[in-house]
Amino acid sequence: MAVKKLAQDTIINLQRQCAIRELPEWNITKYSYFAPIPTRYRDNDMLGNLQDSVYYDTMLTISQRYLRRYVFESNGDGYEQLLTRSHFEYRKNMTFPQIILAGLGIKEFKGMKVEFTLGLFAPMHLGEVENELTLPPAGCFLDADRVEELKNFYESEASVVGQQVAEFHAKNIQTGILSHNFNEALRRIKLGN
Questions:
Q1: Domain coordinates of the chain in residue numbers?
Q2: What InterPro entries does the database record attribute to this sequence (predicted)?
């Protein structure tokens, strides 16, 4: 009886893993906005893996850079942001020295609530990635051909995927909807565009 239960649990876990791997946030081709993230020696924990706080810091840094550049710059500083939830799922450990590729996307946005998704992609080889990529440190949009080119240097399946849910409130107006410019900036990084 115990062996049968173990076999059933194993099958269920494998089915879950296959279903999760098919989700768009694990696939590099579903992102269009990328930024390189160099790891630092002090980012490692005692076991040589990146500390969880590095993933959270990276998520906040990339999403805030994007918002400041494409949203707040054109709308002024008219929004306040409240982070309501943040979590990560791990497939594979990341470590120093690596230049991780962060892909930023939007999974969903409704009203004033936005769910950011961050895929962290490991380089194919440990250490420095070839300088041929020339991605700006602040991040940039890449077309589908360029994303395909990334697969020569980075794994096509994310090692780590995180979600961050934020609510935005207009400082001056309580309309319950984001401005047209804000919505357009979010649509640009919708997963799978």
A1: 25-187
A2: HotDog_dom_sf
Cβ(123)–Cβ(129) below 8 Å: yes
Taking the C-alpha atoms of residue 141 and residue 147, their distance in angstroms, rounded to an integer, is 10
Could you read off the pLDDT of 108-161 as tens digits, one per residue? 888 788 899 999 999 987 655 554 567 888 888 999 899 998 888 899 999 999
The structural architecture, per CATH, of the domain 25-187 is Roll (3.10)
Nearest to 62 by CA among 158, 139, 160: 139
| Contact criterion met (CB below 8 Å) for 104 and 62 | yes
Q: What angle do CA 161, 167, 172 make, to 5 degrees?
A: 150
Q: What are phi and psi of 73, to 5 degrees?
A: -60, -40
Tens of pLDDT, residues 37-58: 888 888 888 888 888 888 888 8
- What separation in angstroms does the CA of 107 have from each of 46, 152, 161, 181, 190? 33, 26, 12, 18, 6
Q: What is the three-class DSSP state of 60?
A: helix
Nearest to 101 by CA among 145, 161, 37, 159: 37
